[in-house]
Design goal:
There is one protein chain. This protein is an alpha/beta fold and 261 residues long. Helices cover 38% and strands 14% of the residues. The chain has one domain: Spore Coat Polysaccharide Biosynthesis Protein SpsA, Chain A, CATH 3.90.550. It has 9 helices and 8 strands. α6 packs parallel to α9 and α8 packs parallel to α9. The radius of gyration is 17 Å and the shape is globular.
């Protein structure tokens, strides 16, 4: 807990048995009140390792996709009373040691959301990011900044923090269940005029770290362009699924679709 705010770390997991413990061991427990892992029907031993570490573990009976997993994570965190939620991938690509810094930027009410950026400080290539992903990241980020009128250094990090107000306000239920969920969430943060902070974060690319293949990367890239266009049109008054007055927020009263183990 920091400044009276309950801090919950969520980990959307899929086949993370080789890196979960290493990731969890670097979380500063003095700053974190609870850790919740949602296993998206992994085909390895992720859920049992999570339980052995005494992590609150939720297991999907069917794979719901990366975005669907995050929706479950955020619902569980809000139902647990979280004031600040930090999403940390359990693949050890991002260092958990930055959680106190991320949380502090929100706990003292300076930002509504905070992103750990691999592009600040030129750590991406040093950490082993493939060159084609680095170039694509730079291009997509430049395009998104142009379309939104913002100045983020990166839109594609998987290490993020949000206040409770953000998660209760954004219509996340109508967002996609695949990887484009992350980008839709950022566009919605701008649309609802929340304040985003960034900090530099080292990254590590290695065999066990999760990464989508080239085909899915291309699909994600085109999805990013589409979300940017939808945001631009929404600002002109042309609404779409998530940029509309009656878009659905997370329903915390509905019966949960996942199963606690």
């Amino acid at each position: 807990m920091i400044n009276g705010k309950k801090v919950v770390v969520i980990m959307p997991a899929y086949n993370a048995e080789k890196t979960l413990k290493q990731t969890y061991d670097e979380i500063y427990q003095d700053f974190v009140d609870e850790v919740i892992l949602v296993d998206d029907n992994s085909q390895d031993d992720t859920k049992n390792i999570s339980k052995s570490l005494n992590i609150k573990t939720i297991v999907h009976k069917q794979n719901k996709g990366y975005g669907g997993n995050q929706k479950s994570c955020y619902k569980a965190a809000l139902k647990s009373g979280a004031d600040i939620v930090v999403m940390l991938h359990p693949d050890y690509q991002y260092t958990p040691k930055l959680i106190p810094a991320i949380v502090s930027m929100m706990a003292f009410e300076q930002y509504d959301a905070v992103f750990a950026s691999r592009m600040l400080g030129n750590s991406a290539l040093k950490g082993g990011m493939p060159l084609y992903k680095f170039v694509a990241n730079k291009f997509l980020t430049a395009f998104e900044n142009f379309m939104t009128g913002e100045k983020l250094s990166e839109y594609h990090t998987g290490f993020r923090g949000f206040t409770r107000k953000v998660l209760e306000t954004l219509p996340l239920e109508d967002c996609d269940n695949d990887f484009i969920f992350d980008n839709q969430m950022i566009a919605l943060l701008f649309y609802y005029k929340f304040c985003i902070g960034e900090l530099s974060c080292p990254t590590k690319y290695f065999k066990e770290a999760s990464s989508i293949n080239f085909f899915r990367s291309c699909k994600y890239g085109f999805g990013v362009l589409g979300v940017s266009m939808q945001y631009f049109l929404a600002k002109l008054g042309i609404k779409s699924k998530i940029f509309r007055p009656n878009a659905r927020k997370l329903d915390l009263d509905a019966e949960l679709e996942y199963y606690f183990q």
